[in-house]
Amino acid sequence: MRTTAIIFALLLLWLVCDAQAGTVETQAAGKWSDSGIWLGGTLPGRDDDATIKHAVKIDEGTAKTLTVAAGATTILEGKLDVYGSIMVSGVLEGARGTLAFHVGDDRLFVGNTAPGPDPSMPDFHPADIGLWVMPGGRVTLTGPEVTSWLDVSARGPATRLRNGIDTAPGIVAGAATLMSAPTGWQPGDTLLLCNPRGQSTTATLATVAGDQITFTGADTFVGNVLIAGDGREVPSKVANLSRRIQIIGADVVAADSNHRAHVAAMPGSTLQLSAVELRNLGPRAKLGRYPCHFHKLGAGGVGSYVRSSSVWQDVPDLGNRGIAPHAVAGVEVTDNVVYRVRGHAIFMEDGTERDNTVNENLVIDCFGPEELANNLSSVETNTYSFWLRPGNEYSGNVAVGGDNGFILLVNDRKVGSEQDPRRLLTDCVAMGVSKFGIQAAIQSTRMERPVSVYAGEAGIGKLAQYSVNNNDLIVNEPLLLNNGARYPGGEDVHGAFSNRMVINGGFCAGMRAAIKVPQPGQIMWNNPTIRNAVLFHPIFLRSDITLVGGDVEVDAVIQKTFLWGWKNAIPGDNVPHFMRLNNVAFKVGATEFPNFSGAWTHPHWASTFPGGRLEYFLWRLP
What we know:
The termini are far apart. The chain is mostly beta strands. The longest helix has 19 residues, at 2-20.
């Protein structure tokens, strides 16, 4: 009888506990680790859905899910391990600590492909594990200041790389001199080193003294400073990926692209991240599940931001996108580092984004192919570090490595006066991308001081597949160095369908053609300084090139037409190419032509000009 009674008592206790398991609420303010603040006096466990209804400081804890109820304020001070989503309808703040998400299988995530359980918020799927900032909720995580990234200074004398380009050592033998002393860097931090060729690697910070740093784990990495003939420099860069407050996918491991959580700010919410490390987030190929997603905030985006933060993977497997301001206005995306991305990294999703600020961000290693469609997927399938729309501010951003650098696209497939007139890219830099550096795909775009170096195909211009002609593209003072080196038909300026493309000033030097117009296009370049192997690479159809003033030194004028297998211009293509030079200080090989003016045309360059030098221009226009 006694044994039966004991078994019955244990069974009754189990039934009571089981009935209570999974729902734990606060009954008072205090620290998470104080069992007295929880109803029943029991701390939440990994199988419990915890709800905070009071002022609670998270010093250390575990839960299945966490709901911060409206009116409650939670302060992150330590580490919270969660095995489901965190949903904030109240306030979540913090200056130090870690939100560690444990995701069993992110392949089970639905993404924004079907309505969620709340009809008023169809894109909310709590089973898609992540940090959800709910309508009326606010998340403000502000870590101690950490300088996100800095240029390096030359550490030795420059040497001549080729005509118009010098190079000097910058990152050498585990040490670098930064352009200024960083703030908040600590020994043990994870650094990200990159150079103008698009190469990058991580390292561990060993010492920091003013603007001098040393590091371990990348002693053989070399990062030079390119010095152009006009005095401008393109330096290697050092970023710091470590922050003192973190949101992480805790179970992500190498060779397994699974187990990633996400961060989503829903309509009517506010998301404010400053000096936060978002690591191993972004479940692959899941629509709307990105490391940092401002989702359809509309005009309510004012006041939301992500600043001086890092978005990265500490494993080789790439994450799903980086930062996505989606259908928002007034969001600030400033001074962040984004590393190891599949799909567009900083991504204006549907073209309704307006009045947002995207400045001083560094994106490294953003690769395709795209795994998610967007409203321009039928037009452009390439992947870009910066997928941008007009009507927003873009300045000082840098793309390193990966597939492509920048593209500014049409909004909602509209043309002409229906488009937002603000179409400006300022001081954008592309270094060592595989294909195109900086592209415009909308009329009347202006680029101020764009820089593209070592882009595999072309430095600046427009891709041929766009149906909207790139009319009135204005490029002021570009710096274009060694673009097109990975592609036999590569070039610095790509003019496909570039009606009335005007370039003012700038410096261009490299081992490929300065200008290529593979489809009908017109380019006028005023006062250029060009130091390329070849001036012009015609392909077929009509190209119209005019150089006015400036200083041009090239090894040859025409590059033979061989791209895409065409040994000659298309048979029957009698539409002529034009080239005009007006008062140009012109040098071809060793032959100088001061204040040179001339104009030439011919429909079949390759068959007539096998050597491609100036003496083969035989047709002079009247």
